[in-house]
Amino acid sequence: MAGTTITARDHTVYVGSPQRHVVIEYNKLVDDAETIRGAASESVVAVTELMADHATFKTAVDQTETLVEELHDDHATFKSVVDDLKARLNQMYRLTNYAVLGNPTFAIDTNFDVKSTEPISYLNGGTLKTLADNANFDTGTAATIATVKWGAAVLSVNSGGTGVVTWAAGAPATYASEAAAIAALTDPGATDTVMGYVTVLAAGSTWTAGTDALTGGTGGTPATTTNYYNAINPNSLLLGAAVSTSAPATLTAAKPASAPATLSASVPSATAINAATDLTAAKIADSTGTVLTT
After folding, report:
1. Given this model, what pLDDT does residue 15 score?
2. For residue 51, is it within any domain?
3. Are residues 77 and 139 in the same domain?
4. Do 62 and 169 lie in a common domain?
5. pLDDT at 57 exceeding the cut of 60
6. Residue 108 above 50 pLDDT?
7. pLDDT one-digit tens code per residue, 246-278
8. How many domains does one find in the chain?
9. pLDDT for 155-213, tens place per residue?
10. Whole-prediction pTM
11. Do 79 and 196 fall within a single domain?
């Protein structure tokens, strides 16, 4: 067969023959195989590093899970801390913005109501005001106290300067002791300045506000015991929320003993398939040594 010959791996290929085109395609396949080898090598290294990092990654996940579980466990305690703090802050706010600055000296007024017998300065919403002497605190007509039971009412002044009487829950009241009645008192309102409170013991029959006189009165059933307490007394301060009597809650401080695990950040560089010719064979060249590519 006429033509120039090309030698490679002991084969003879004739220029211009169909075999030449086969050789060219073969050489292209060799190039592609090398490219694939390089990519495969980096993939193998990446997979190898992921395998090596698996244990470390698991450690990091375990530590994260521990922290999440601790936060979950601490939620109730943390809420208790926050609620207690809110109560204390509310008390501080009420003490500095809604405070009575003296002794109103409460007494009976017209048999059924209560009055302050001394002019008194007080703060309401941070504004300094004065309550005149003989200011009336109307006990109303709805409150009743069962015989031989106690009732109690908060005495406060609203933002308009009017005396307000807020009875503890219970109609008729059924508190067996004065202390129990006092414990049932609630804050009369966010914009009221608490001046003090009054307690009443009904004796002999049910006592009805506005119908039966307080102790020392002349109408209704006089057999009552009435005690007056001023907000200047630290034991009678009503500042909107009771302070928790328990010690402040403590959050747990446990955390993973070791530092957070660090995953490998190295970029694949070495080759798992070490020899560049592992996946390749020699390219076929012509008689002058030039590799056929076209």
Report:
1. 53
2. yes
3. no
4. no
5. yes
6. yes
7. 555 555 555 555 555 555 545 444 444 444 545
8. 2
9. 999 999 999 999 988 767 889 998 899 888 887 888 899 999 998 988 878 888 988 88
10. 0.55
11. no
Q: Are residues 62 and 116 in the same domain?
A: no
The average confidence (pLDDT) of the chain is 73
pLDDT for the residue numbered 78: 74
Last residue of a domain, one of 91, 121, 139: 91
d(CA 168, CA 145): 11
Q: Please check whether residues 107 and 208 belong to one and the same domain.
A: yes
- Residue 253 included in any domain: no
> Cβ contacts of residue 210 below 8 Å, gap of 6+?
112, 139, 140, 141
% of the chain beyond a pLDDT of 90: 18
Residue pointed to by tokens 């009904």? 202
| Residue whose tokens read 């309401």 | 124
The CA–CA distances, whole Å, from 61 to 67, 70, 91, 257 equal 10, 14, 44, 14
Q: Helix, strand or coil for residue 73?
A: helix
Q: Which domain holds residue 213?
A: 101-236
Instruction: Please say whether the dihedral angle defined by the alpha carbons of residues 95, 98, 104 and 108, taken in this order, is positive or negative.
Output: negative
How many residues appear in the chain?
Answer: 294
Listed in sequence order, the residues at least 6 apart from 195 whose beta carbon sits closer than 8 Å to its beta carbon are 100, 104, 106, 116, 120, 122, 131, 155, 156, 157, 163, 230, 231
| Domain assignment of residue 162, yes or no | yes
Query: What secondary structure letter does DSSP report for 235?
Result: G
**Residue 115 lies inside a defined structural domain of this protein:** yes
Half-sphere exposure of 94 (CA within 13 A, CB side): 24
The answer on 216 and 168 residing in a single domain is: yes
Burial class (CB in 10 A: 0-12, 13-18, 19+), 151: buried
